[in-house]
From TrEMBL:
It catalyses: [protein-PII]-L-tyrosine + UTP = [protein-PII]-uridylyl-L-tyrosine + diphosphate; [protein-PII]-uridylyl-L-tyrosine + H2O = [protein-PII]-L-tyrosine + UMP + H(+). The keyword Transferase applies. Its cofactor is Mg(2+). It comes from Sabulicella glaciei. Uridylyltransferase (UTase) activity is inhibited by glutamine, while glutamine activates uridylyl-removing (UR) activity. Residues 716-804, 827-903 form the ACT domain. This is Bifunctional uridylyltransferase/uridylyl-removing enzyme. The lineage of its organism: Bacteria, Pseudomonadati, Pseudomonadota, Alphaproteobacteria, Acetobacterales. Residues 476-592 form the HD domain. Belongs to the GlnD family. Keywords: Hydrolase, Magnesium, Multifunctional enzyme, Nucleotidyltransferase, Repeat, Transferase. The keyword Repeat applies. Residues 1-359 are annotated as: Uridylyltransferase.
Length: 918
């Protein structure tokens, strides 16, 4: 097959020796550019080359086009009579200078002249730039003399870094040759240290912006930690220090620095380059733009394009992401090892010296450059893997640094950790690191070097394991390490303001070892299929004895892993005012010590999920569960007869109604059914009494009151009006239109036929809904919804939807009916994708089936909503007849489905009919 003729040949051989008209030249260039892009995409998607090869091929093809444009510009802007030809060099910088281009990357160009650019040079540059822009290319450009270039590089790190990659493309080579000499002098004069310091600061700022952890579930493959930019930083450092063109040039004893890389590490760098570039190419092709973030909606598409399919319990997306996270870990490892080695080779060993001491020597350790290493020449990690734990303990206890050479050795010999399983000294050292100061820091290092997955082989399954949802921010291993760090914050009192009860309880724990190991193992069985709590409890029974734990400790850890979700599920998905709820959890816990352990573990687990998961309302619910269960375990709550508890509640309410006449007081006490009196405290009953008295005195058909509970992070909205079917649905719809998210609700019908409904709501950020104008609007919306003047379906449709990137996260609808969780109510749990108006649709379906909602408990986990309703039928009884439950399940499943277009859907039709009847 004959290769296509380079574009510049066709341009220069124009008929009659004259250049083609500009539009004709543009048309020819567009065809050539389209052919190049299509060729690279075809070869890449046919898997004839991987990302790095495609990037180099695209850059090389772009070089031909640049050469053609410059040649054409020289013809179109001829020199004046007697003047020289081209007097500038066309130079590629940045990524293009490195000879790699992504499909939608910017093309960075430098128009470099020996002296200040003359009039013709400026016209040529302008002509070329307009040609490039008309071709649809994104161009970063600068026009400078050699002197200006060096001056700008000396004061601007961005310019300096771009010029490190400078590559001659076309034009007069003399300015570029002169520039290279001047740039070399600048590097020698400025030295390596300032460049290294500046690149470290730049990287720190970038990580702060794009994520400190390499294990974020929507990573930026270019700018995030462990991404392409971190690899490029290593390349820049090596290039600046030694002038190397490729990282493999650092391999071997005769290489710059004396062999900073092994063959194995050089291959790891190449694998990482290739994988990350392949990901980047797919992202650009899928989105049609320079997209660098691998968001949820793109992950399944990219995984399929790269050939990842389901394997066992992991689907293709999870396998792709695990590969990405393991690659990010490799990049982090290489950065940790290679960067200090480059620094040492370029600048010499640090000035500080430190003599060894007897205790350090006795541990088999020594100092090199003031940092810890295994004692040469006869002590190393390969023959004594226990040194890997000793060196970390010594570094922690004495606030020392571990030498990069020692970290490199740990990475190389991490497999030797297998020999330490069941070793008493290793177990003692590991438990010391797990429970000691800065545990998260040392566990991350153990995880990064690969020690942890060899010491505890079950850990390997969760390394880099993501969960394809929007609730968990980190991978399982990173989440676990984060949870352990939070336990230490709780113990240190750092979270006293947000978790005061857990902070107080942490000092009372007798089973601290069990708590830390349970935190380490609580998610160990994720990714295996089945209930990870049950599977994890069984794994804990195998792992704990290997770690040297006693039978009693093993049983406690296993129990904690099995029940680590018990407190949170009870707090967020059950009516904690129902005595049976508290008695059931007390029956499972049985011991005050276990309850304390469970609460601290729950707080750490929740806060480690992500920054937006924890809020004051959830903290309040967890505290309420703890105190109520604690009271039962202490024998102080035997749950007296219902009538006795109601009588006590009325007595307490009476004491709060000092300003009421006897008749008014008796009237209020006659309004509530037993469930009402057992659902609120005396202070709330008194507020309700004042609200009802005012409403009856004025004859108001509807009363709405709101109260901001800042300490709980919620706003309480109370609605008093005539009861009728579908009331809850319409109020929840109005709240959705107003942008309020319901987190809990209590629904009560009084003996006078009025409804007294209480909703606790938050704003979209998970805080109290407290803006005065928005609170006022809520009251108006509720009134309009109840009067029929507000088209809820249409208004809910206008509420801002979730970002498109979250659409790929599927949440299968699920309905569970439980007649055992409560003695008095049927408990309905619905799981589905959260969206504006979901609660409106679900409660509408419940009401249409003739059921009365007593309370609602609303929880969201990312895009997944888990809503629990305590219901009765019209006779005040549980719903146990399967003939009634079957159609209810179908209706709820339909309500959980995505909304249908206006005018369609049985539920929407039924809701409109119900509204018309009302």
């Amino acid at each position: 097959m004959v290769a296509a003729e380079p574009a510049h040949v066709a341009l220069e051989l124009a008929p009659g020796g004259e250049p083609l008209p500009r539009e004709a030249a543009l048309a020819l260039l567009r065809r050539e550019l389209g052919r190049v892009q299509a060729e690279v995409q075809r070869i890449f998607e046919a898997r004839e080359t991987q990302g790095l090869g495609a990037a180099r091929r695209l850059s090389a093809r772009m070089d031909r086009i640049m050469d053609a444009i410059q040649s054409y510009a020289a013809l179109m802007v001829p020199p004046s009579k007697g003047a020289l030809g081209l007097d500038f060099a066309l130079v590629a910088t940045g990524g293009y200078g490195r000879g790699v281009l992504a499909p939608h990357s910017d093309i960075d160009l430098l128009f470099l002249s020996q002296k200040e650019p003359g009039p013709r040079t400026r016209r040529l540059v302008e002509f070329m730039l307009y040609m490039l822009w008309d071709l649809g290319l994104k161009v970063g450009h600068a026009t400078r003399s050699v002197k200006d270039c060096v001056a700008e590089a000396a004061k601007d790190l961005t310019v300096l870094t771009a010029l490190v990659d400078a590559r001659f493309l076309a034009g007069d080579p003399a300015p570029f040759t002169n520039f290279q000499s001047e740039f070399q002098r600048l590097r020698r004069k400025g030295g390596f240290a300032p460049f290294l310091s500046a690149k470290r600061a730049e990287r720190a700022a970038r990580h702060a912006r794009y994520g400190e952890s390499p294990f974020l579930v929507e990573p930026n493959v270019k700018e995030g930690r462990g991404g392409l930019r971190d690899l490029q930083t290593l390349y820049w450092l090596a290039r600046y220090a030694f002038g190397v063109q490729k990282m493999p040039e650092l391999v071997g004893p005769d290489s710059p620095g004396g062999g900073l890389l092994t063959e194995l590490e050089a291959r790891a760098i190449r694998r990482a380059w290739n994988f990350l570039w392949t990901l980047r190419f797919h992202l650009h092709y899928v989105t049609g733009r320079a997209e660098e973030r691998l968001t949820f909606d793109l992950q399944p598409v990219v995984a399929a394009r790269m050939g990842y399919t389901r394997h066992g319990a992991q689907d293709g997306t999870e396998r792709l992401m695990k590969h990405l996270f393991l690659t990010a870990r490799d990049v982090a490892r290489l950065s940790r090892v290679l960067e200090p080695a480059i620094e040492r080779a370029a600048l010499g060993p640090p000035a500080r010296r430190r003599e060894g001491d007897a205790r350090i020597s006795a541990m088999g350790l020594a100092f090199a450059d003031g940092r810890l290493v295994a004692a040469p020449p006869d002590r190393d990690f390969s023959h004594e893997p226990i040194l890997m734990l000793r060196i970390m303990k010594a570094a922690r206890d004495r606030a020392l640094e571990i030498h990069p050479l020692a970290i490199r050795a740990m990475i190389r010999h991490h497999r030797r950790a297998e020999a330490l399983r069941c070793d008493p000294e290793a177990n003692a050292l590991f438990m010391d690191l797990l429970m000691g100061k800065d545990a998260a820091k040392w566990l991350r290092l153990l995880n990064e070097v690969g020690f942890l997955q060899r010491f505890i082989p079950e850990w390997q399954r969760v390394v880099g394991l993501m969960q394809f949802d929007t609730y968990h921010v980190f991978t399982v291993d990173e989440h676990t390490i984060e949870a352990i760090g939070i336990i230490q914050q709780i113990e240190a009192g750092a979270l006293n303001e947000v978790a005061p009860v857990a902070t107080e309880l942490a000092g009372q724990l007798q089973s601290r070892r069990a708590l830390y190991v349970a935190a380490l193992l609580h998610d160990i069985a994720k990714g295996r299929g089945g209930d990870h709590s049950e599977l994890g409890a069984r794994l804990a029974q195998e792992i704990c004895p290997r770690l040297g734990m006693s039978a009693e400790e093993t049983e406690t850890v296993s129990w904690l892993v099995l029940h680590h979700l018990l407190v949170s599920h009870t707090a967020f998905k059950r009516d904690i005012e129902d005595p049976k709820t508290i008695l059931d959890i007390a029956d499972q816990v049985q011991s005050p010590e276990r309850l304390r352990l469970l609460l601290v573990l729950t707080v750490a687990d929740m806060r480690a999920v992500g920054p937006r998961v924890w809020n004051a309302w959830k903290a309040t619910l967890l505290r309420e569960v703890y105190w109520r269960v604690s009271e039962v375990l202490a024998g102080g709550m035997t749950v007296p007869e219902r009538d006795v508890r109601v009588a006590r509640a009325k007595e307490a309410a009476t004491a709060e109604l000092g300003g009421f006449a006897p008749g008014e007081r008796d009237h209020f006490l006659s309004l509530g059914y037993p469930g009402y009196w057992l659902s609120f405290d005396a202070e709330t009953h008194a507020r309700h009494a004042h609200l009802i008295r005012e409403a009856e005195a004025t004859g108001a058909p509807l009363t709405v009151r709101s109260r901001v509970l800042a300490d709980r992070g919620v706003t309480e909205v109370t609605v008093y009006c005539t009861d009728h079917p579908g009331l809850f649905s319409r109020i929840s719809g109005a709240l959705a239109v107003g942008g309020a998210s319901i987190v809990d609700a209590r629904i009560h019908t009084l003996t006078n036929g009025m409804a007294l409904d209480t909703f606790w709501v938050q704003d979209s950020a998970g805080g109290a809904y407290d803006a005065p104008h928005r609170l006022a609007r809520l009251g108006v919306l509720i009134e309009q919804a109840l009067s029929g003047r507000l088209n809820l379906g249409a208004e809910i449709g206008k509420v801002r939807r979730e970002p498109a990137r979250l659409a790929a996260v599927t949440v299968p609808p699920r309905v569970v009916v439980d007649n055992h969780a409560s003695n008095t109510h049927t408990v309905i749990e619905v799981n589905g994708r959260d969206r504006p108006g979901l609660l409106h649709d679900v409660t509408g379906a419940i009401s249409e089936h003739g059921l009365q909602i007593a309370s609602a408990h609303i929880t969201t986990y990312g895009v997944r909503a888990v809503d629990v309703f305590y219901v009765k039928d019209v006779f005040g009884l549980k719903v146990e007849n399967e003939r009634k439950l079957a159609p209810l399940r179908l209706a709820l499943l339909e309500a959980l489905s995505p909304p249908t277009p206006p005018g369609g859907g049985m539920i929407a039709s039924n809701m409109r009919e119900a509204a018309a009847r009302a």
